[in-house]
Design goal:
Layout: H1 10-19, H2 33-43, E1 55-59, H3 63-79, H4 89-92, E2 94-100, H5 105-124, E3 128-132, H6 139-149, E4 155-163, H7 177-180
Antiparallel strand pairs: 1-2, 2-4, 3-4
Helix pairs in contact: 2-5, 3-6
Bound molecules: flavin mononucleotide.
Flavin mononucleotide binds near residues 21, 24, 130, 132 and 172.
Length: about 180
């Protein structure tokens, strides 16, 4: 039997996963770069298709750029007819633009794996997270973000936000195991 070293027990890992919430209100408190680096370091441990590691993480620190990102996100939500949302978190949190090498499914799945690693790492560091696809659903918005960050080649896949939570969101209802799993 293969015994993995440094194995965390299931209960600890599961309770970390259970405690994750999407946070949309953050404290106006600077997140040290060191913590952001730890989050991305967790991301890049993820498995990836053919070990291509097709990701790039662009951290927005510049307040002007964050302001523009908020406009892009808010406009995108409006265009898509999504529910009204206080988008001020975009300027308060630390946005990380996840750029994937291409739209290839295997590569997108790989990047998504990195994203969830990052979200779990954030909890362990006392931070909250949100990922927002609304800003990158439509090509014109992806182009606006690409221009904002000077990205020429990659696919602007997702925007992730990290910061000190200033709310305790209710746990969202999750489907029961029996509804989504079968042994056949
Ligand atoms: C791929 C993906 C994209 C998402 N995009 C958005 C978004 O654009 N804006 C937003 O407010 N929440 C977004 N969310 C957060 C979801 O609304 C949230 O995960 C869901 O309601 C479940 O809540 P929980 O994360 O607290 O469990 C996204 C989540 C995922 C996984």
């Amino acid at each position: 039997m293969v015994v993995l070293k440094n194995r965390m027990d299931y209960g600890s890992l599961y309770s970390l996963m259970l405690s994750r919430r999407s946070v949309r209100k953050f404290k106006n408190k600077k997140v040290p770069r060191e913590l952001i680096e730890k989050i991305v370091a967790a991301g890049i441990t993820a498995p990836s298709s053919f070990n291509k590691q097709p990701w790039k993480f662009v951290v927005l620190e510049d307040p002007e750029k964050k302001k523009i990102l908020r406009e892009i996100y808010a406009d995108a939500r409006k265009k898509q007819g999504l529910y009204e949302q206080d988008t001020s978190f975009v300027e308060i949190a630390v946005p990380i633009i996840l750029v994937c090498e291409s739209e290839d499914k295997g590569l997108l799945y790989s990047c998504a794996m990195a994203a969830q690693n990052m979200n779990l790492a954030a909890i362990s560091l006392g931070l909250g997270s949100l990922q927002a696809i609304a800003a990158t659903t439509q090509e014109e918005d992806r182009e606006r973000i690409a221009e904002l960050i000077g990205e020429k080649k990659g696919f602007v896949m997702l925007v992730l936000f990290y910061g000190y939570p200033d709310e305790e969101p209710q746990k969202k209802p999750k489907k029961a195991l029996g509804e989504v799993m079968e042994f056949i």
